[in-house]
Design brief:
This protein is mostly helical and 110 residues long. The chain has one domain. Helix content is 83%, strand content 0%. The chain contains six helices and no strands. Helix 1 runs antiparallel to helix 3 and helix 3 runs antiparallel to helix 5. It is rod-shaped.
Length: 110
């Protein structure tokens, strides 16, 4: 929810910039890439830092969770993939909306 909210706000505040990019000939894929990369950078950093922190605290975690070894690679990969997938979907919704911006309407409203 947080990634979606922050990215949706960012896209709304950059409507004029995105409109100019589209008016100057930017492809829809370029706008999609711009917005998705903006949202996925903090997600990837968070996954890496979180995995490192979980690895450091794995001894404590292994005592709390039954049946999971201290450095269970399947759990680490599954959680990272789940978080990345959710973040990608949260990024694609504002990215799709950004591609639907009508350049003339957006520039006239400002």
């Amino acid at each position: 929810m947080g990634i979606y909210s922050v990215l949706a706000y960012s896209v709304r505040s950059r409507v004029q910039e995105i409109s100019i990019r589209i008016a100057l000939g930017a492809k829809i894929s370029d706008v999609l890439r711009l917005v998705v990369i903006e949202g996925m950078k903090p997600t990837i950093v968070g996954i890496v830092v979180g995995a490192f922190g979980a690895w450091l605290l794995s001894g404590i975690l292994s005592r709390l969770i039954y049946g999971v070894t201290a450095t269970d690679p399947y759990t680490f990969v599954a959680v990272a993939l789940l978080l990345a997938t959710v973040a990608l979907v949260a990024c694609l919704i504002p990215a799709y909306r950004a591609t639907r911006v009508e350049p003339l309407t957006a520039l006239r409203s400002e």
